[in-house]
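User: what does the whole thing look like in 3D?
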Amino acid sequence: MNWYLQSGNESDVVLNSKVKLSRNIKGINFTPKASKDDLKKVFDLAKKISIGYGLHFKSLDDLSDVEKQEYVDKGILPEKYIKSKNAYKAILINDDENICIYINGMDHLTIEVFATGFEVENLTNLAIEIDRKIEEQVDYSFSEKYGYLTPNPMQIGTGMKAEVMVHVPGLSLTKNLRKIINVVNNIGLNIKGIYSESTKNDGDIFIISNNQTLGVTEKEIAKNIKLITKKIIDQERLARKILTKNSLDIEDKICRSFGILAFAKKIESDEILNILSIVKLGVDLGIIKEINDAKVSKLYLETKQGNIQKRIGDKASKKDQAVERAKIIKEIINEE
Amino acid sequence: MLCENCGKNEANVHYTQIINGVKKEISVCSDCAKKLGLDEMEMPINFNSFLGDFFSDFAERSLLPSLKANEVKCKTCGTTYNDFINDGLFGCEDCYTEFERPINSLLKNLHGTDVHIGRKPGLTGDKVEETKVQYTATEEKPKEVDKKAKLQAELDKAVKEERYEDAAKLRDQLKEVE
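Assistant: Here's the predicted 3D structure for the full assembly of 514 residues, as structure tokens:
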């Protein structure tokens, strides 16, 4: 089963984890300054990479807009990459879609590994293992002093970004989010809402990632993210405990949200996030028994733009999309 | 409120422009916003340009008093000093040697250091070991052979007693056993 539909470690709070390595090839200009020939060189080199894991090479030109949008919805490719005008974009991806290397983004190669739940350290090991295998076939741009070189000086050194996506409705409902955001920022990590660059609260989901890539080891990056995430898990569970002390209010809120989810005839894209946030809380607290964790993941994924476009075409109006979204939700809830 | 452009759909994109104190507001639907090019509007503030400021600050005060800073150019990719100040990106690996001195200062500002201590190519570095962290709420692990039944019973009990936090944990444990 694909990682994004599974249920993982600490999944009542941590939705998924991701580790990313930025790598560039020796002797070829970085993509912001690369000529078409340079990009083609990278493309051809990447095509020859063979490291196992069941990776397939796909040129982005061969994918439809809907397919590309689906990769964005699953969190596998950044929207910026899909929209970038670089020629010779391609991906190396396996069937489980937990490993993806995308080519000619901001860096020549961006190695990404994913898992559901809280798996930062295992993912770091996997990313390094893959990196080492690629290193045997490709000469990376590396400096003894600065480490792995990248066009963006904010990523040099390890070139590593570790991310965890956390769902914190408890902290949000008890109005403690601001505190958490401050603490994370003070520690030198980065926290942001998923659907915007800002810390605006959309569906109570946030991504925590490292800022520093130079002067730290891969191990330290993983450890820092792990420690702070554990703290957030603790605090979120505490907040949920406090909330359930007044159980009628919270149960009412949860059941109302589930009512909208199960019976509404049309649901807009911004509405669904907040409803799913409360419903997921209800599932995690054992208040909603009609659906399970896996179905919640499926609801998150399949109510996104890409899947709706896949079903009714990318020219459908907002209203038709909202109607289709409500239909999809009913199908998933009623699935055996 | 209906879209001011087509008058058919509900307006959900609100655009406010203030130029020389004259305020102009437009409310359109998302389809029209797309047509009018309002949906892909990005903030004109680019974080990368802040990087450039660190860089230029350094240059003005202490670097290259004899050279005009903006004439420094990377021999390999042609990235000039000004290019970096504008977009905050380097063009190739040689830029890091070409602009070494200001880069050291920039990196210290960004990362607190300018020396890499992580993994190197070709070396088999240490594996990242699991960091053990204790939760404040300690979990008790069931020792019974029939773990599953016990967990299920505990889960039911937790739900009944409205200890939902415990219930969530138990649910996760149950899944592992299954």
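In plain terms: Residues 19 and 51 of chain A are 18 Å apart (CA to CA). The longest helix of chain A spans residues 218-245.
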